[in-house]
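Regression test case RT-17, inverse folding.

Input:
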């Protein structure tokens, strides 16, 4: 039904913040092309045809219908809906209403406008003033209590009505005639458990923080980016060589096989799943890598297949050394280096030592002649290595050790089979012995 202009709700009442010809939906809401967008001056309903409709929403519900029983509440409902659909509008920002930048969903706004119509009808039925700034906390409590009497079960069902009151309070400086001056979050209803939401932080609190953050970016960003560029321009520190780089398997294998004295260790008898004469793959891996890698010839490795064929071909020529399990270490010296260590030659160790000693900031810890007091610092005397002058000193706190060479106290000796059970009792019992 279209009402005449003279009796149309809200007719002749200019909006305080928004013009009648202003579109109520913007591209931020995801507009469809070639579909007209409703404007603020449409007082009966705003269609959502210009938006993509969810499949679970009926076409008749994809719109916002405004209350037509009173022109004041009609204008108020349109202003609330417009503010929710355009949260970044300049007039809202100028009035100090800072809402989330993402526009509200059309269905959310439709439901809120319906609850706003319930509030308006109740207010007219109670003969309340149309100016919301005149409402006090008692009026808000009476409205929420009426909703409980109408069937709203508990505070959870009152959430949608509290949301309406919260929006009317938040937009008090935007709505025509003003909004609620009483904070609805402080209103309690008898018979319900209060679930007061977190109160919004006032712009006077967080705006200076935002300014300070922007000042930090604006003033310090150049220095930070310059430091980053300088750090990236520095030559990268060479990574320490790994065991694989120090012992390339293929080169080590060829060098090992090139020695005429090399004999391939093989099982003298069947051992587990290996038949007699099968090469000891893990032992060979240790021999060719100086103990750094015991899985270089594992059958699960794709790169190991040609290496195993190479060894089997040499073994077929009779270059084998039959061994029993356990003889490889004693006869060949095949020993695995513990994880975390790296086999380095004496030349590499000497070079590392000279590099470390050449730095004048490095201090060599030496043990004092006297034992330091318990829980007190100790001063160690460091001779000047490679330079003339006074010795270098360093103070160490108790427990400040380097290298982790702490020895455990000797474990108590127990009898066989009685580990951790104390000494073995004498079967003859207590008493003197002859």
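Golden output:
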């Amino acid at each position: 039904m279209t009402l005449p202009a003279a009796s149309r709700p809200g007719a002749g009442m200019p909006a305080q913040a928004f013009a009648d010809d202003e579109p109520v939906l913007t591209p931020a809401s995801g507009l469809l092309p070639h579909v007209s967008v409703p404007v603020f001056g449409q007082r009966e309903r705003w269609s959502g045809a210009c938006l993509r409709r969810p499949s679970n929403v009926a076409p008749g519900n994809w719109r916002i219908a405004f209350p037509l029983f009173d022109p004041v509440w009609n204008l108020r409902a349109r202003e609330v809906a417009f503010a929710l659909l355009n949260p970044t509008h300049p007039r809202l920002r100028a009035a100090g209403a800072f809402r989330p930048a993402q526009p509200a969903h059309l269905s959310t706004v439709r439901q809120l406008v319906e609850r706003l119509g319930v509030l308006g009808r109740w207010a007219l039925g109670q003969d309340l003033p149309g100016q919301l700034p005149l409402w006090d906390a008692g009026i808000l409590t009476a409205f929420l209590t009426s909703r409980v009497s109408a069937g709203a079960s508990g505070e959870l069902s009152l959430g949608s009505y509290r949301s309406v009151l919260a929006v009317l309070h938040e937009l008090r400086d935007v709505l025509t005639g003003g909004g609620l001056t009483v904070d609805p979050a402080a209103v309690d209803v008898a018979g319900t458990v209060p679930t007061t939401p977190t109160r919004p932080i006032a712009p006077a609190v967080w705006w200076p923080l935002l300014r300070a953050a922007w000042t930090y970016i604006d003033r310090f960003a150049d220095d930070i980016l310059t430091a980053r560029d300088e750090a990236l321009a520095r030559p990268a520190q060479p990574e320490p060589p790994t065991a694989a780089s120090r012992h390339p398997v293929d080169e080590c294998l060829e060098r090992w096989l090139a020695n005429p004295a090399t004999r391939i260790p093989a099982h003298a008898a069947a051992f587990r799943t290996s038949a007699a004469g099968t090469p000891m793959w893990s032992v060979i891996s240790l021999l060719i890598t100086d103990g750094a890698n015991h899985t270089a010839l594992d059958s699960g490795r794709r790169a190991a297949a040609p290496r195993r064929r190479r060894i089997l071909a040499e073994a077929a020529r009779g270059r084998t050394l039959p061994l029993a399990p356990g003889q490889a270490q004693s006869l060949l010296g095949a020993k695995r280096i513990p994880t975390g260590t790296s086999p380095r030659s004496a030349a590499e160790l000497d070079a590392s030592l000279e590099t470390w000693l050449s730095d004048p900031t490095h201090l060599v810890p030496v043990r004092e002649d006297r034992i330091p007091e318990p829980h007190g610092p100790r001063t160690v005397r460091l001779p000047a290595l490679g330079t003339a002058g006074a010795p270098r000193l360093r103070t160490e706190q108790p427990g400040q050790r380097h290298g982790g060479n702490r020895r455990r106290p000797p474990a108590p000796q127990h009898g066989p089979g009685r580990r951790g059970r104390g000494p073995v009792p004498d079967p003859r019992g207590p008493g003197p012995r002859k």
